[in-house]
Amino acid sequence: MLAVLAAAAILVAAQAWSAQAQADSGSSGAAAASQVSSAAVEDGRQLFLSDCASCHGTNGQGSNVAPTLQNAGPATVDFYLRTGRMPLGQLGVPSWQQERSPLTSAQIQALEAYLGTVGTGPAIPNVVASAGDLHRGWELFINNCAACHSATGAGGSIGTSLAAPPLSRADAQTVAEAVLIGPGAMPRFSFSQADVNALAAYVEYLHTPSDPGGVSVGVGPVPEGLMAGVLGLGLLILVTRWVVGRKGHVAPAEQLTVPVESDELEEAGASKPSRRRRPPWPGDSR
Ligand code: HEC
Ligand code: HEC
């Protein structure tokens, strides 16, 4: 009986100990996590002071050259950093036109952690391109995006000194973020999750559309069209020159000259013009 009690006591003690150990490890895990993120926030703050504060102000409050980051939530910050728009190299140049930024993904994460303490705005959206309906994506793209980005996603001018970028580098997350935040001159959209997936699927599809037929020279439809134009035109010019330059052939302009009346020519003492000079036309009165 005593042995059973002792065994039970040991069991209870062991359970209590293991529960305590679990609680300890849980709380130390949480502490470690918050340490990591506060370290990231601090790293991000340092990076912000060296790379961003000159334009956005030491607290991200903005300046006369750059907007405040107090309205820039995770989706905006992630979009601007992952697409290499920031840090901006040169004021006055659209940020999407600059060379991709030198920031590593660890630095981007640190900046995102820090800027998460500065601004509030929409969270990074979810998107699953592989779940997107390609036909729906095409429909949405033609109706909402093609006017600016062109039907092939090649981008183009959208007014004096404004242009929409090509979408050849935009992955699914970038598409979802762009439609959510509406960067620069682009409007914001509020699509359903299914429509965001569909758009992302379609933009990814535009990167490698299946071959629509014809001979591909592997440089994309626009340069291929240009090449076809240049080659075709060149060939046409060669053929024309060959036809015109053939011996004994009458040049078209000469063929069409109105024949001079023969009596006028006789007065001038010239010989009769050859009947061959102009073939009879259906409308001729003679
Ligand atoms: C040379 C000045 C300059 C530097 C340096 C710079 N930015 Fe910017 N930033 C701008 C300007 C100008 C805009 C607005 C124009 C645009 O969107 O291209 C902007 C826009 C942004 C936006 C979008 C804000 C919004 O609400 O639309 C974010 C986010 C941002 N910058 C973050 C950063 C971060 C992070 C860094 C440092 C890694 C940085 N910027 C460095 C000038 C700068
Ligand atoms: C009024 C013209 C306009 C319309 C409509 C428009 N965009 Fe944009 N889009 C822009 C401009 C301008 C930018 C560049 C903004 C900037 O960085 O300052 C842009 C940027 C983007 C980017 C970022 C590209 C990159 O690689 O950095 C994506 C992705 C994008 N648009 C997708 C879309 C989709 C999808 C639609 C339709 C739902 C759409 N856009 C509709 C003008 C437009």
Topology:
Elements: H1 2-51, H2 53-56, H3 74-82, H4 105-115, H5 134-144, H6 146-149, E1 156-159, E2 162-164, H7 172-181, H8 193-207, H9 221-245, H10 252-255, H11 262-267
Antiparallel strand pairs: 1-2
Helix pairs in contact: 1-4, 3-4, 3-7, 5-8, 7-8
Question: In words, what does this structure look like?
Answer:
This protein is an all-alpha fold. Among the domains are: 35-124, Orthogonal Bundle (Cytochrome Bc1 Complex, Chain D, domain 2); 129-207, Cytochrome c-like domain (Cytochrome Bc1 Complex, Chain D, domain 2, Orthogonal Bundle); 218-244. It has helices spanning 2-51, 53-56, 74-82, 105-115, 134-144, 146-149, 172-181, 193-207, 221-245, 252-255, 262-267, and strands at 156-159, 162-164. Strands 1-2 form a two-stranded antiparallel ribbon. A hairpin with a 2-residue loop joins strand 1 (156-159) and strand 2. It starts with a helix and ends in a 19-residue tail after the last helix. One heme C (HEC) binds next to helix 6, helix 7 and helix 8.
Brief characterization of the structure:
The protein has 286 residues and is mostly helical. The chain is 52% helix and 2% strand.
Terminus-to-terminus distance? 142 Å
Class by SSE composition: mainly alpha
Q: Write the H/E string, N to C.
A: HHHHHHEEHHHHH
The overall strand count is 2
